[in-house]
Design a protein that fits this description.
- The complex is a heteropentamer of chains A (about 325), B (about 240), C (about 290), D (about 400) and E (about 240).
- Chain B is α/β, with parallel strands linked by helices and about 240 residues long.
- Chain B has one domain (about 1-240): P-loop containing nucleotide triphosphate hydrolases (Rossmann fold), CATH 3.40.50.
- Chain B is about 35% helix and about 25% strand.
- Chain B has a six-stranded mixed sheet, sandwiched between helices. A four-stranded antiparallel sheet of chain B has the order 2-1-4-5, with helices on one face.
- In chain B, α3 packs across α4 (about 120-130), α3 (about 95-105) packs parallel to α5 and α5 (about 150-160) packs parallel to α6 (about 180-190).
- Chain B starts with a strand and ends with a helix.
- Chain C is globular.
- Chain C has a two-stranded antiparallel ribbon.
- In chain C, α1 runs parallel beside α5, α9 packs parallel to α11 and α10 runs antiparallel to α11 (about 260-280).
- Chain C has a domain at about 20-220.
- Chain D folds into two domains: about 30-150 and about 315-375, Response regulator (Rossmann fold), CATH 3.40.50.2300; about 150-275 and about 380-395, Rossmann fold (3-Layer(aba) Sandwich), CATH 3.40.50.2300.
- Chain D is built from 13 helices and 14 strands.
- Chain D has helices at about 1-20, 45-65, 85-95, 110-120, 150-165, 180-195, 210-215, 230-245, 260-265, 290-295, 315-335, 340-350, 395-400, and strands spanning about 30-40, 75-80, 100-105, 125, 170-175, 195-205, 225-230, 250-255, 275, 355, 365, 375, 380-385, 385-395.
- In chain D, α9 (about 260-265) links the parallel β8 and β9.
- In chain D, α3 (about 85-95) runs parallel beside α4 and α5 packs across α6.
- The longest helix of chain D is centred in the first third of the chain and has 21 residues, at about 1-20.
- The termini of chain D are far apart.
- The chains are: A mainly alpha (about 325), B alpha/beta (about 240), C mainly alpha (about 290), D alpha/beta (about 400), E alpha/beta (about 240).
- Chains in contact: A-B, A-C, A-D, B-E, C-D, C-E.
- The interface between A and D is large, with 54 and 48 residues.
Chain lengths: ~325, ~240, ~290, ~400, ~240
């Protein structure tokens, strides 16, 4: 049943690439890249209850980690995306090491400070990042033996990002369905008790933070590839707040919920921004409203009424 | 041979002395009761043994290994498990899952490439514990939806799930109905056949009825230790509880 | 270095003067955390709102000092219902409340953008006097701001430590339930604290408006330093906040003499990380925080 | 179970929305679609506001006079939020969703640079109104036209005047990003060529709230400051500079004044020199064309919008106007019919000469074929008693420099 | 004489746990009443319910004839009920004087402070010391003193003897007796039977959230079986 649904979704995503008009396809590419971000953030907030405001660090790092190797060393797209991914891993490890052992309030502030400092540095270190102006890059062709795929082909970027989305979803779904995922949920439900069951809670929180940060970096890399561009603005606090909106709109601790959140919010942003400049104020109002209805987000609310958010054995 | 030894352990909170040079030594497969009036330091003693608090002085040994000041998860991995006075459960996990998490802590840990349902050894053991504590019929209920008594039983199940050699139970019958209390005591007695159990209880008759040996704490000090018969005759214990009216 | 010691001293003192404004704002942040247990992510935006309102009042009345009196009143009128109707329902769930304040922050910024506009504006200095200071002229208004900030901080301090109302606030910071059982209306204390904290931020905004620029994102810059200050000083510790604010600001100022100010800010950040490694609860924070 | 259904329902709704939403691009093919990247919100909102009005006025004029080659012009406007990443995204949206054939504007060099590769990828001619030299240099491409003055032109043009009339020893204070660097580099180059000297170069991050620590580093020997910043940074800059060095002379590009009333800036801005491609007040360039131009865009002699009293950023508004009419001329000359004729339009634009007229009110000039840059004259203005006055005019021949690239050799 | 405090059949839950299962008791003006019971019987919950810290699902609490059940804790306190909680719950980071001041709502009760110092002379020398640095006995004294400063008509004492040395326990007894002489009503929760018997006129025994037995001190003298039955120590 569930498998069938997933299959249907994958097929429709594959077909959509062919039938969608260009504008909608570009929007879809953006949504798919953001969906990875949203799922990654869900691992942090929805599964282990770590409310991070520092994810823009990984998003930005992923974007630059992907753009810079192509720009300066003429790396291929795939190795570059991988470098961005690794950079996210390294940064998530360093920042996580400092922040996961802190209490809730400290965690929120310290991650917010990380975001702000990285933004400040990225804006300042223009020789590296291009500052607010950013850096544009020409994407090399991706070679699979004799087959060459150009991301400038109208379908290229779509399937490129879709492949990563599916791989990312599969990876995160596997993690969430593995013992590790169970430990994450246990930590979310009762951190102290988990420690008394013999788990080193800090280590597992760090692992969750690492997974979350790394996949966020992947999303940043893909977004940069789809824009052929990266800017220091990717480090700004906006990119730390927006995943909260996605996850709340879609539903925390569900993986697929945040993707729905991305879709709804992106469509909203795409169509409303054209005629109402101050649409962003809605985001703030949405945060407050959804929190009032359900702390697990909208999907979490619907599921929660039946049994609970998340998944079961 | 004593499996758990507490040597001269002292704990101060600011100006207050919660525990004052407490000694305790528990044999293997013993069912030990610890009683004492409110504020005697029973829960503090548990917190020190299980690593939630660090003692101000003294040492704690588990099978001759010094575990003083280790973090809780390491102490748990060494075979010491506990329940909490106010239930501490995973509200949105099912009974089965709550126990599963504990069993997994000694086995596969976190391998992200296996599926939870593929770990048959863990699953079997989890089923077994569900049976042992008598919650097999409620295995798929969320912990938060259980009755308070069942939550208390689940707590014991979770503590058991880490396959401990010593189990510390902190007032397992507090706040439950007499019928539920009986069930819980039944579970405890069954357990005590295989592992060491240390039981904190305020209900003196329960302790005297089921325990092999009883330690009486009063104002942070051990004032008596012995089998139930000795304890009920002990004058100092009577003075503590009844006083010289 | 062009002029040696005087040069460094200039940076040190310039940093210290900013430090007083930062202390004022951080004090509000720390106070709100102490009583409500939440980090107010919208604090920097209240600072911004203070500056924006003061811009309007200055253009309306043509007098800066009137706005210094009126703006705190208006912010108090906004803050009280915000606490009561938006934050109160989330009480007891710190992470939910913090996300809610993120939402409020977003709303404040966007409302300011929609009404005030995206163009930074300037309030002319209400005291156009320059002092000769260590070989260069120094804007007198900044010295005035430092003095006013110091006075307000002393006032708040006296209020918290010398008045019975202040004692009630501090009692609520330590044990809300017991405070309530002592006959203290903790709900009023919650509103009062949120209002006081917000007013401090708003006053900071009014005072800083003629030094800095009035801009709907101006809070982001200031709140970063405030966050670092409360982390280093220890969340909820008022004396820690004060000491850290003054210390960090002057250190940052002094370092700006040799480094670019961004590098100096990064150094402050490194200090914060070092403090966190050694004392996760901050220099003056309690263990439980 | 129920949750799953809800989830599915939501996915379905999203897909439906996407398909229907996308259908909006199946609009009538008849008009020539022009997209505009307006900086309506964010730091450049003042520019976005007036640029949009000017472009709308230009298109209204064109449509009233029968359109281009008989086809009406339809305008699509998207807000860049003054952010390069949003700008690049909106560029795509304009072309891919609305199907626009040409894109005009954004006053931000960052946005222009971010959009240049997109313009090339989507094969859509792009006319940014931003000043960074790179746009007509290494960051541009055959699809990008800089039909306004660039930083290098401005610095080269003003250098002689600066050394002779303002001061010999200079400090430069620029915002720390591409446009600022351009200014720093070019000014230093040309001021040195003219016998002046830059004694200190200071870069300040965008949005800095306390400028004193930076300005304190200006050496005592500096007689004058050349600066490149705008908006909030400009306000802080002049205020703090006035406090710390009231004697020092100041020179900057006029668009720093974006929407600011020089009178309100007070003594801090008094005597400030600005480089301007177009005088803000009619008095500076009082031609019949300009009077008509101002009338059409609804601006009075002082540069204020009639009716609202808002300050237009006239110094750069002409670039939007001129871009639209250059485009019109090129379409007419090449006989453009659809996107496949785009190379013809580009070829028509390369090397195009134009005469001073209502369509080109700033004056005669030409679009250099090699780097797609408009070659025009400049003005130097000064704030005297709170009013901008033209001090001198710099003819186009003093501004021109040799091109660094040759776009005509690039393939389409 | 009408009861000063009357608790009528209250039922209180902690989440799902049914703690008070219909408790009724009363305290008359100037009376010292003890509430005894084993740990977990619901004694502390009874006091917290009276204070309004937790709300009962059913039942009523009348104080001076006024229904105080729906009132928040601070209003209950202002009505004239002083609360000395288990574990003292001082404000640790504040000085002794500041702790005392939290109770002094009305202006001009400086005299009251002198009375307090008569009762607890040890506090007078420690006014500027932080509460957390006090010894156990001093902390208890401060906790009671703080509650007295709210000028209550009844004092709820929750296990005041916990952790006190015998000498201090007798000091505490003297304090309670003195308060009693001054006409203060006291509801005392205790586990230490001798102490309770030595100060209280009437005693309630609580078992599993219900009042199981009620009697005066005289009724209970030499009735060990009652204690054994309800407090559970076998002889």
């Amino acid at each position: 049943m569930k498998r069938g649904f997933t299959f249907l979704l994958v097929i429709s995503l594959l077909v959509l690439g062919l039938i969608l008009p260009r504008g909608a396809r570009s929007l879809m590419v953006q949504m798919m890249a953001f969906s990875i971000f949203a799922m990654a953030y869900d691992i942090s907030l929805g599964f282990t209850n770590q409310c991070s405001l520092g994810h823009s660090v990984f998003f930005g790092a992923g974007a630059y980690g992907t753009i810079l190797p192509m720009l300066h060393w003429h790396f291929g797209v795939l190795p570059s995306v991988f470098i961005g991914f690794l950079l996210g891993l390294v940064l998530a490890f360093l920042t996580g090491l400092i922040s996961v052992r802190l209490s809730e309030a400290y965690f929120v502030i310290v991650t917010a400070i990380f975001s702000a400092i990285f933004h400040l540095l990225a804006m300042d270190m223009t020789w590296l990042t291009g500052g607010d102006d950013g850096l544009s890059v020409t994407l090399p062709k991706i070679g699979f033996g004799p087959l060459k795929l150009s991301l400038y082909h109208p379908l290229g970027t779509y399937y490129f990002v879709l492949a990563f989305l599916l791989a990312g979803y599969l990876a995160l779904r596997t993690i969430v369905g593995s013992p590790l995922g169970m430990i994450f949920v246990a930590i979310r439900e009762n951190e102290k008790r988990t420690a008394f069951l013999g788990y080193n809670v800090r280590t597992y929180k760090l692992i969750a933070f690492l997974i979350s940060g790394t996949f966020t970096a992947l999303s940043g890399g893909l977004y940069a590839v789809s824009l052929r561009y990266a800017t220091a603005d990717f480090f700004s606090l906006y990119w730390s707040i927006i995943p909260i909106v996605w996850c709340l709109v879609g539903g925390l601790g569900t993986l697929i919920g945040p993707c729905i959140g991305v879709a709804l919010m992106s469509l909203f942003q795409y169509y409303v921004s054209a005629w109402w400049t101050y649409y962003l104020v809605i985001f703030g109002v949405l945060i407050l409203l959804i929190l009032r209805v359900s702390r697990r987000g909208i999907l979490g609310y619907f599921i929660g009424r039946g049994a609970r958010g998340g998944w079961r054995l | 041979m004593a499996t758990l030894k507490v040597r001269e352990v002292t704990k101060r909170f600011g100006g207050l002395v919660a525990l004052d040079r407490v000694n305790l030594s528990v044999e293997e497969r013993e069912l030990r009761g610890i009683i004492g009036p409110n504020g005697a330091g029973k829960t503090t003693l548990f917190n020190l043994i299980t690593g939630e608090l660090k003692p101000t002085g003294g040492k704690i040994f588990l099978d001759d290994e010094d575990i003083t000041g280790l973090p809780p998860h390491l102490i748990c991995q060494k075979g010491l498990s506990r329940t909490f006075q106010l239930t501490s459960i995973f509200p949105e996990l099912t009974v089965y899952e709550s126990i599963w998490v504990g069993i997994n802590s000694k086995r596969h840990r976190w391998n992200p490439f296996t599926k939870v349902k593929n770990l048959t050894d863990v699953a079997e053991r989890a089923e077994k514990i569900c049976h042992l504590i008598g919650l097999q019929e409620k295995r798929d209920e969320l912990a938060v939806n259980l009755s308070y008594g069942d939550q208390k039983i689940l707590e014991i199940g979770m503590a058991l799930s880490t396959e401990p050699s010593i189990l510390l139970l902190d007032e397992p019958t507090q706040g439950v109905s007499p019928k539920e209390a009986e069930e819980i005591i039944g579970v405890i007695q069954r357990l005590a056949k295989d592992i060491t159990v240390i039981l904190i209880e305020h209900s003196v008759d329960v302790v005297l009825q089921v325990c092999h040996k009883v330690t009486v704490l009063h104002e942070g000090r051990v004032i008596a230790e012995g089998d139930p018969a000795e304890i009920s005759k002990n004058e100092e214990v009577q003075r503590v509880y009844l006083g010289e009216a | 270095m062009p002029e040696g010691v005087g040069f460094i001293l200039f940076y040190l003192i310039n940093g210290l003067i900013w430090g007083l404004i930062i202390a004022l704002i951080s004090l509000g942040l720390s106070l709100i955390f102490g009583v409500m247990g939440i980090v107010n992510m919208a604090h920097g935006d209240i600072y911004m709102i203070g500056a924006v309102l003061s811009f309007y009042f200055v253009s309306l009345f043509g007098n800066f000092w009137i706005s210094l009196l009126i703006v705190p009143l208006i912010v108090a009128l906004i803050a009280a219902p915000t606490e009561r109707f938006i934050l109160r329902p989330f009480e007891g769930h710190p992470s939910v409340t913090m996300i809610a304040t993120v939402g409020i922050s977003f709303i404040l910024q966007q409302v300011a953008l929609a009404t005030f506009g995206g163009i930074p504006k300037k309030i002319s200095s209400p005291w156009e006097v320059s002092f000769d200071f260590l070989g260069v002229s120094y804007p007198g208004y900044r010295l005035l701001v430092a003095a006013i900030s110091a006075l307000i901080i002393i006032g708040v301090w006296l209020f918290l430590y010398r008045t019975s109302l202040g004692i009630l606030i501090r009692a609520s910071m330590q044990d809300k339930e017991m405070a309530s059982a002592m006959g203290i209306n903790v709900n009023k204390v919650l509103i009062g604290t949120f209002v006081l904290g917000s007013v401090l931020a708003a006053i900071g905004g009014v005072l800083a408006a003629p030094i800095s620029q009035v801009f709907y994102l101006m809070g982001n810059d200031v709140i970063l330093l405030c966050f670092i200050v409360v982390i280093v000083g220890g969340l909820g510790s008022l004396e820690g906040t004060l000491i850290a604010a003054l210390l960090l600001s002057s250190v940052e100022g002094a370092m700006a003499a040799f480094l670019t100010p961004t590098e100096a800010r990064a150094m402050i950040f490194i200090i914060m990380v070092a403090v966190l490694m050694l004392r996760p609860q901050g220099l003056f924070g309690s263990n439980s925080a | 179970m129920r949750g799953k259904l809800v989830g599915k329902g939501m996915v379905f709704v999203v897909l439906l929305l996407m398909i229907f939403g996308a259908n909006t691009e199946l609009a009538a093919k008849e008009p020539i679609k022009v997209g505009m990247l307006a900086d309506k919100t964010g730091g450049l909102a003042a520019y976005g506001y007036s640029h949009e009005k000017v472009l709308r006025a230009a298109i209204q004029k064109i449509n009233k006079e029968g359109g281009i080659l008989g086809r009406p012009v339809k305008l699509y406007v998207e807000d860049t939020e003054s952010k390069p990443s949003v700008g690049a995204m909106k560029f795509r949206k304009l072309v891919e969703t609305y199907g626009v054939d040409f894109v005009i504007d954004s006053n931000s060099s960052g946005i222009a640079i971010a959009c240049a590769p997109v313009a090339k990828e989507l094969k859509t001619p792009y006319f940014p109104c931003a000043g960074a030299t790179e746009i007509s240099g290494e960051k541009g491409n055959r699809y990008v036209f800089q039909l306004c003055t660039c930083v290098r032109e401005e610095c080269k043009g003003v250098a002689k005047f600066a050394v002779n009339n303002i001061g010999k020893k200079w400090a430069t204070v620029v915002v720390n990003y591409a446009w600022g660097w351009s200014n720093e580099k070019e000014f230093k180059k040309y001021i040195t060529e003219n016998g002046g000297e830059v004694v200190k170069s200071i870069r300040v991050p965008l949005g800095t709230s306390d400028w004193l620590p930076y300005l304190r580093k200006i050496p005592k020997s500096a007689e004058a400051v050349f600066f490149a910043n705008f908006g909030s940074d400009f306000l802080s800059f002049i205020r703090d500079l006035h406090a710390i060095r009231p004697d020092i002379k100041k020179l900057g590009a006029v668009y720093v004044l974006s929407g600011q009333d020089p009178k309100k800036l007070g003594p801090a801005a008094e005597g400030l020199y600005c480089i301007a491609p177009y005088p803000t007040r009619l008095e500076g360039l009082n031609t019949p064309y300009n009077r008509a131009y101002r009338k059409l865009i609804g601006v009075d002699e002082e540069g204020l919008e009639i009716g609202t009293g808002k300050r237009f950023v006239l110094a750069y508004d002409w670039a939007v106007w001129q871009a639209m009419f250059a485009l019109k001329a090129a379409i007419e000359k090449s006989g453009w019919k659809s996107r496949k004729d785009t190379p013809k339009v580009i070829k028509a634009l390369e090397g195009m000469r134009y005469e001073e007229s209502l369509e080109f009110p700033q004056g005669s000039g030409y679009i250099r074929a090699e780097d797609h840059l408009a070659i025009v004259g400049l003005y130097v203005e000064q704030i005297v008693k709170g009013v901008l006055k033209v001090v001198t005019k710099i003819p186009a021949q003093e501004v021109v420099y040799s091109p660094t690239v040759d776009r005509t050799k690039e393939p389409f | 004489m009408m009861a000063l405090l009357k608790v009528e059949d209250i039922h209180t839950y902690y989440g799902d746990s049914y703690v008070l299962q219909g408790v009724s008791l009363e305290v008359k003006r100037g009376e010292v009443v003890a509430l005894l019971g084993r740990n977990g019987a619901g004694k502390t919950t009874t006091l917290r319910t009276i204070m309004g810290i937790i709300k009962p699902r059913r039942g009523k609490i009348l104080f001076k004839g006024v229904d105080i059940t729906p009132m928040p804790a601070f209003k209950v306190a202002r009505m004239g009920i002083g609360y000395v909680p288990q574990g003292r719950r001082l404000f640790p980071e504040m000085t002794v004087l500041e702790n005392l001041k939290t109770g002094m709502r009305k202006k001009g009760n400086g005299d009251k402070l002198d009375e307090i110092f008569d009762l607890f002379p040890a506090l007078k020398d420690r006014l500027s010391q932080k509460a957390s640095t006090l010894s156990g006995g001093e902390q208890q004294a401060l906790s009671i003193a703080r509650a007295l400063l709210t000028e209550p008509e009844i004092l709820l004492l929750d296990e005041p003897t916990t952790g006190l040395m015998p000498l201090l326990v007798s000091r505490l007894r003297e304090v309670i007796e003195k308060l009693h002489e001054d006409g203060m009503a006291i509801l005392l929760v205790e586990e230490k039977v001798p102490f309770a018997l030595s100060v209280a006129e009437r005693l309630y025994f609580m078992v599993k959230g219900k009042i199981a037995y009620e009697g005066s001190r005289r009724d209970l003298e030499d009735k060990r079986d009652v204690f054994i039955r309800y407090l559970g120590v076998k002889n």
